[in-house]
Specification:
Elements: H1 4-7, H2 41-45, H3 50-63, H4 72-81, E1 89-90, E2 97-98, H5 99-111, H6 115-121, H7 126-135, H8 155-167, H9 176-185, H10 203-215, H11 224-232, H12 253-263, H13 272-281, H14 300-312, E3 321-322, E4 327-328, H15 329-336
Antiparallel strand pairs: 1-2, 3-4
Length: 338
């Protein structure tokens, strides 16, 4: 039986309070888990996000310097229960294996120092089988990656593959140069990147492309001046950032845009104080957590990326985050042997 605190990652509630005296971060509460709510529709509507939710929640706790708030062994057991013989991971036990779920699984196992458990208890052949699954999703003609056996492909899956394979030290299993060529083909006249060649520039897709290029050590291909200008224009008068022109601000773009600016050394091109105030304004001051914008319901997704954005902004007492991986920097450095 998986501890209900593990399932509660999907409803992680974190409260960040600005004190007039010391500006301390405080954890307010972790919401009741979902195990006892299997008769409620919300439980089933979020099942496809279960494994991703563990990553969002655990990453947020690590950034808050509370890495042990979730039970380590039960976290590992749940992750491994989502694995297929192919090496890939599904969103929850019994779900089809998918690139995005597999990436989250690798990130979580890395954060809890559980890759040895993958070798000992995982289905198939441990890390090698996970790497084989992801490598098998690369389109060897174009360099891009499919999300699963059904053939959808865009830069999210390419980035995810390079992210997870580098953490596993298995990048040699894929054609990195071909992947870089595909990303270069996704570049647009405005300096941004789309989901595939010819697609509109979008902040989240820019993050995936820059993250992949950074992991591949090919940021030299980026027009940093032009891209920095496009990204800095995502800031609205209220301090928040949007994903593309004419859209409203959203806390999650505090990560997608800011991390991209960090990778090209241009975070000083935006109003950092204004962004900090926007993120802080989206808190639920009673129950904790961050929402997409002020006044809306909080959730673990926006809590994770809001905290990651605050970490990049240098907010006090938060663990430094790696802009390439959206994981604690000290963990990625250890995993990569840096």
């Amino acid at each position: 039986m998986i501890d209900r605190r593990l399932r509660c990652c999907l409803q992680l509630i974190v409260f960040v309070s600005l004190s007039l005296h010391n500006k301390l971060l405080e954890i307010c509460a972790i919401a009741e888990g979902l195990d006892s709510k299997t008769d409620e529709i919300d439980y089933w509507l979020t099942e496809h996000l279960r494994l991703n939710g563990v990553y969002w929640g655990l990453n947020a706790l690590h950034l808050l310097r509370r890495p042990d708030a979730l039970p380590r062994q039960e976290t590992i057991d749940f992750i491994l229960s989502c694995q297929h013989e192919s090496g890939g991971f599904g969103a929850a036990p019994g779900h089809d294996a998918h690139m995005l779920s597999t990436v989250s699984a690798v990130q979580v196992l890395t954060m809890v120092d559980g890759l040895d458990d993958l070798e000992a208890q995982g289905k198939g052949k441990g890390k090698a089988q996970v790497g084989k699954f992801m490598a098998g999703l690369q389109n060897r003609e174009t360099g891009s990656f499919f999300g699963d056996e059904w053939g959808e492909e865009d830069t999210r899956f390419l980035y995810g593959a390079l992210n997870a394979l580098s953490l596993l030290r298995l990048l040699h299993l894929v054609d990195v140069n071909k992947a870089v060529e595909f990303i270069a083909g996704c570049a647009n006249f405005d300096g941004g990147f789309g989901a595939k060649p010819g697609a509109e520039s979008h902040s989240a897709q820019i993050f995936t492309c820059l993250g992949a290029l950074s992991i591949a050590n090919r940021l030299d291909l980026v027009d940093k001046e032009k891209l920095g200008r496009w990204l800095s224009e995502r800031q609205l008068p209220g301090g928040g950032l949007n994903g593309r022109p004419e859209k409203t601000e959203d806390v999650c773009y505090s990560w997608w845009v800011l991390s991209s600016l960090a990778m090209i050394d241009r975070t000083h091109w935006i109003d950092r104080d204004g962004l900090t105030k926007f993120i802080m304004s989206t808190q639920d001051l009673k129950n904790g957590g961050f929402s997409d914008s002020r006044g809306n319901m909080t959730d673990v997704f926006h809590t994770c990326f809001g905290l990651a954005g605050l970490s990049l902004l240098g907010y006090p007492d938060l663990e430094p985050v790696d802009p390439r991986y959206c994981m604690p920097k000290k963990i990625t450095e250890k995993a990569l042997g840096q």
